[in-house]
Amino acid sequence: MTTAELVHVYGPRGACLELFGRREGEVVISGPAGTGKSRACLEKLHGVALANPGMRGLIVRKTAASLTSSALVTWKRDVIPEAVEAKGVWFYGGSAEEPAQFRYDNGSVVSIGGMDRASKVLSTEFDMVYVQEATELSEEDWLTLTTRVRNGVVSFQQIIADCNPSHATHWLKQRCDRGSAVLLQSVHSDNPRLYDDSESLTRYGREYMLRLEALSGVLRERLLEGRWSSAAGVIWEGWDASQHLVDPFVIPVDWPRYWSVDWGFTNAFVCQMWAEDPDGRLFLYREFYKTQLTVDQHAALILRVVAPGGEWVEPKPRVVVADHDPEAQVVFRRETGLACVDARKDVAAGIQAVARRLVVAGDGKPRLFVMRGARVGKDTGLEERHLPTSTVEEIPGYVWDEKRPEQPVKDSDHGCDALRYVVMHREQTRGARLRWFDS
Ligand SMILES: Nc1ncnc2c1ncn2[C@@H]1O[C@H](COP(=O)(O)OP(=O)(O)OP(=O)(O)O)[C@@H](O)[C@H]1O
Ligand SMILES: [Mg+2]
């Protein structure tokens, strides 16, 4: 009988290598896009699970859905395949009580989950937690995780996390600056897929870096240069994901709906769907954000969601506010039966109106929210180019144009345009109603 030997090959470098030696309670590896951060965290977790029978690990991200398309791909394709083939690791889909998990023949378990389903994920204690894209979490999420890291099977208990840099005053950066967490800075040459052993770019690396070189502004600083930077002249400084992003909830049917559309083909077409609560707060509950499709194709995708089989499953919008493009509006009306109203495009007024809504009012709430997971599907072409794939992703890079007073830089601003349109529309009509009552 012959036994095939299954060898797992992984050679970390730089900050990725340093991660393996770290034993502190909280270690964050930050860096530009594609430096090998996630791979390093997953390899460490897997190594610790193999070496410590009965250890409990967790792979967690803000939402479970986003984990499936990111870390779990690398985990299954690059980290555990040999162990799976040798039948040392297998997947268990979870139950009402237990999260989905990878089980090891030595009794170790690596669970997977999202902070959006925290109660299930956090029902047990862990030796090591890997947080993917940790800047998406609130500090409260992070602190909750720290209370679960105390299983005591491994000689050290640790949260490891990775992220691309965010704004300069992000809570995670501050946590590292204060010394509560260790910050490791990874660079592109840490990844052998991008740079070979003689530190020359590989063919893949050359193509990858070209896409990053094409970025501008704050995205360039963060994803190419790896800097924790705030864009100079951010327009909506009041935007704060921990205040304005909310978990999805069932929207009462009597909350009116408003759609806001910015047309595009090479640039993103954006169709935002908003619901307004009885106090006038707007909630973005769904968003189509896609390039390379014609208006009739967008209409078909939208109808598939709002009226599958021809039956509307949610209230029709009271109004569709849209960018001025008569031809596109005609097609949209023909395909969906919904007429569009021209958006009010006074840029400065629209920007101010949105900014006012972002302010937390006396009742402790702002007047504009975005539901997590609102975007339907993801435009992988935009993702590959590291461009925003949703309105929320646009906001940090929506900046004033230094050369044109009171105007934003016209660059990945399609969702922000649609945001202005819907807010202006609501300001206008609510304002008109108020004036009517006053007179
Ligand atoms: N040491 C290594 N040897 C071989 N391949 C590697 C190594 N490190 C990373 N890779 C591969 O490079 C690709 C990118 O790595 P990874 O996803 O870990 O990067 P990242 O820094 O997390 O990127 P992002 O910033 O986009 O999240 C993956 O396919 C990964 O398997
Ligand atoms: Mg990653």
What does this structure look like?
This protein has 17 helices and 15 strands. With 439 residues, it is an alpha/beta fold. It has 2 domains: 200 residues, P-loop containing nucleotide triphosphate hydrolases (Rossmann fold, 3-Layer(aba) Sandwich); 198 residues, Nucleotidyltransferase, domain 5, CATH 3.30.420. An 8-stranded mixed β-sheet has the order 3-4-5-2-6-7-1-8, with helices on both faces. The protein has a 7-stranded mixed β-sheet with strand order 9-15-12-11-10-13-14, sandwiched between helices. A hairpin with an 8-residue loop joins strand 3 and strand 4. The longest helix has 25 residues. It is globular, with a radius of gyration of 24 Å. The site of magnesium ion has 3 residues, from helix 2.
What's the short story on this structure?
Helices cover 35% and strands 17% of the residues.
Task: Label this structure with key terms.
439 residues; Nucleotidyltransferase, domain 5; Rossmann fold; 35% helix; alpha/beta
CATH structural class of the largest domain: Alpha Beta
Global shape: globular
Estimated share of beta-strand residues: 15-25%
Helix percent reads: 25-40%
* Termini separation: 95 Å
What number of structural domains do the residues give?
A: 2
CATH superfamily of the largest domain: P-loop containing nucleotide triphosphate hydrolases
Number of helices: 17
Strand order of the largest sheet: 3-4-5-2-6-7-1-8
Cα-atom Rg, whole angstroms?
A: 24 Å
CATH topology of the largest domain: Rossmann fold
CATH-scheme architecture of the largest domain:
3-Layer(aba) Sandwich
Main pleated sheet: 8 strands, mixed
Bound molecules: adenosine-5'-triphosphate, magnesium ion
State the assembly state of the protein chains.
Answer: single chain
Round the mean pLDDT to the nearest integer and report it.
93
Using DSSP, what is the number of strands?
15
